[in-house]
Write a structure and sequence with these properties.
With about 280 residues, the chain is α+β, with helices and mostly antiparallel strands. It is built from 6 helices and 12 strands. The strands form 4 sheets. Strands 5-6-7-10-12-11 form a 6-stranded antiparallel beta barrel. Strands 1-4 form a two-stranded antiparallel sheet. Strands 2-3 form a two-stranded antiparallel ribbon. Strand 2 and strand 3 form a beta hairpin. The chain starts with a strand and ends in a 13-residue tail after the last helix.
Length: about 280
Amino acid sequence: MPGHFLWITWIDREGIIVSSRFSLSEHLPLVLVLLLVLQRFDHRQWGEISELTRKDHSVPLHPVNADGTLCEGEVGVIFHPEDKVHSGWSLLGRATTVVGASSERDEGGAPIEEREVYNMGDNFAGTAVDGGFEDAETGGAGALGGEDGAQSASDQARNAYRKARDNITKLHNLILKISWPEKSRIPEWEIVARAQKLGETDELIRGHVPEVKFGRNFDEYSTHHVRNFLKLHDKQTGTRTLRLVVMNRLRPIHDLEGGQLWVAFWQCFRCTLSPHTVSQPPLT
């Protein structure tokens, strides 16, 4: 009878695996075995990443050496899911997500005290209303006196926003990058170490390279496990693995204005003209 067929589908960051169809009535023992197997799956087998679902939001990572290798020891890094810097959730691909983070120990080795994140809502001088800003104290930009009042309220709101951003950046002085790159992709800590080495003799690179402080590949979540089990080695399109990278947190360039914005933009532009980063001579 129609509608009594079943397919098993597996979806992960590398792609989709679909079984051949089988009949619920003709293969009833197989269906019962499948249900018993699924019943015994633990949280990790259902796709939950236990290292990222702990209540204390702490994940163990390896410190990065100056030569771009990982130390054998581990350091706990606290990440803050509510402090989202970038999000790219998807079923397939890298699905890169970046959140604020902080080390469990400061540079002196003493535990960092628990502190509340700066509440932007309680300290924001104004709120956006129809493209303008409504001053929280005076009850509106118009109450400050026409165009000058609107400009003043806008400046107050912008300053309050930056102050809130600065406070959050101080509390969460690191960022945690969570992604699923192809296993063959060179990790960030090796690339940055190479760039820093080049920067020792290239002034266009020196001072423009981020610092990778911690990192780790979680191979236990790699997409190759199920494909090896199903003997699909020859059909792999690119094994992906879970990779966590921690770097110092920088202020975004769009927070700058005027001369500061131009200087930062020009430095980024000149950095791309380095003979180490292009195949042609720099422009004159």
